[in-house]
C-alpha cells in the first residue's frame, strides 16, 4: 500500500553554534526526506532556522523523534508544523510574482522609521518575506567611519495603486528623515550595468559656474540665475547662455585652480572603487563644463563624460560655448545612446542628479535617484538620497557591506 505524503515545517531557534544545520539535515537525509525549502538567519549569535520537507507517514514519526532528541542534545528549541498540500501548492504558485524591494537608508534607521514603513506595507495588504541589513554591524561607540545604516525589506503581494504607495513612502521619507527606495524585484534590478551622474552639486558640492563667476566678479548675478534654473523657473539653455556670457574675459588659468580644489561629495571615492570592482560602467552627464568633468573622469575613473565646452581665445573665456548645450533633454538622449552602445536595456541604467535639468534622465533610467535634490526634483523622483553621501547609491543597488568591503 502506497504511503501518504506528509509536508512538515520545522522551526529551530537558539544559540548559534557549529554543526546545528549539519546535524539536523543529516537526520532528514537518513530518512530520505525531501527538502522543499530552507532558510537561516543569525542575529547576535542567535540562530533562526526553518526547513520545509516532505516525507511519508511511515517515516514522519521517526523523523520528529530523532529531531527532538538532537535538539535536546544541541540545547536548541524546535517546533513542528504540518502543512496542507493545497496551501503548499498555492504558495508555490506565488513564487517570484509581485515582489518589491523597499530600502530604508540613513545615518541611522530607527524603530519609528521602520514602524512607519511597515505600516504602509500593511495598509497595502502586502507581506514582508524577508528583512536584511545591508550596512555593517552597528558599534555601540562611534568609530572612525561616517555612520550609515540601511535595511532592505523584501515585500510580496499585488500593489493595487503603485503611485499612491510611492507617494506614501516619499512622504514618510520627508516626515521621518529617512531615505527610501521602492523598486520592483525583477531581473533588471539585479542586473544594473550603467550609472550616469550629474556633476555639479552631485559629484561635487558646488556649482562650478558659480565658482567661475566669483572669480570674474559676477557671482551674485550668476548664482541668482543658477538657482532659478535649478528650481525649474527658467529654461536651462537660456539660463546657461546668460551665465556663460557673464564670464567673458576670465583667464583660463583660473579653471585649473578651481579644479584641484573642488569639494568632492562624501562617499564618491568609495562608491567609484566598488562600482568599478563589480563591473559597472559609469558616466558623467553634466550641464557644467568639460574641463572639470575631465578632471573628475581622470581622478576617479569614469568611463564616459559629456558636458559643455567653454570657448577660449588668447587664454581668456569669450563668454560663448562650443557645440550643443547639454541640457535636460540632451542628458536623456545621451543616457539612451550609452545604453545602445553598451548593448543593455534602458531598465538596466541608473541616473543620479539633483536639479530640474536632471529630471528627464531620472525618468528615463530604470532607476532614477534624486541626490540631495531641490524640492521640485525630490517631489518628482521615485527614489531620493538626502541623509548620507553618494555611496548610498550602492545600497539602492542592493549591495551589502560584508560582500563589497
Features:
four-stranded antiparallel beta sheet; seven-stranded mixed beta sheet; Alpha-Beta Plaits; 16 helices; Rossmann fold; 405 residues; 3 domains; alpha/beta
Describe it for me?
The protein is an alpha/beta fold. It folds into 3 domains: 5-93, 2-Layer Sandwich (Alpha-Beta Plaits); 99-185, 2-Layer Sandwich (Alpha-Beta Plaits), CATH 3.30.70.260; 194-404, 3-Layer(aba) Sandwich (Rossmann fold), CATH 3.40.50.1000. Helix content is 40%, strand content 27%. It has 16 helices and 15 strands. The protein has helices spanning 20-30, 57-74, 85-93, 111-123, 162-176, 208-216, 219-230, 236-245, 253-260, 268-277, 290-300, 328-342, 359-364, 375-380, 393-396, 401-404; strands spanning 5-15, 34-43, 46-56, 77-83, 99-106, 127-133, 149-156, 179-184, 194-197, 281-289, 304-313, 316-322, 349-353, 367-371, 383-385. The strands form 3 sheets. Strands 12-11-10-9-13-14-15 form a 7-stranded mixed beta sheet, with helices on both faces. Strand 11 (304-313) and strand 12 (316-322) form a beta hairpin. Helix 1 (20-30) packs antiparallel against helix 2 (57-74), helix 4 runs antiparallel to helix 5 and helix 7 runs antiparallel to helix 8 (236-245). The longest helix has 18 residues, at 57-74. The chain is elongated, with a radius of gyration of 27 Å. It starts with a strand and ends with a helix. The mean pLDDT is 91.
